[in-house]
Amino acid sequence: MADTPAQKAKFTGVGVRAISAIGLVILCLAPFYFGGWLWAVLAGLFGGRMLFEWVRMSDPSPALPAYLTPILGLLAGIVYTVQYNFGYAALCILITAIAVAGIQIVRSGDVKRSRVIWAVLGVVYIILPTLLMVGMRGNEVGFDTTGFQRLLFIMACVIGADVGAYFGGSTFGGPKLAPKLSPNKTWSGFFSGQILAILLGAVFGHLVGIGWLSGAILALPIAILSVLGDLFESGVKRNLNVKDTGELMPGHGGLLDRLDSLMAAIVGFALILILFPGVWPG
Question: 261 near 159, Cβ under 8 Å?
Answer without folding.
Answer: no
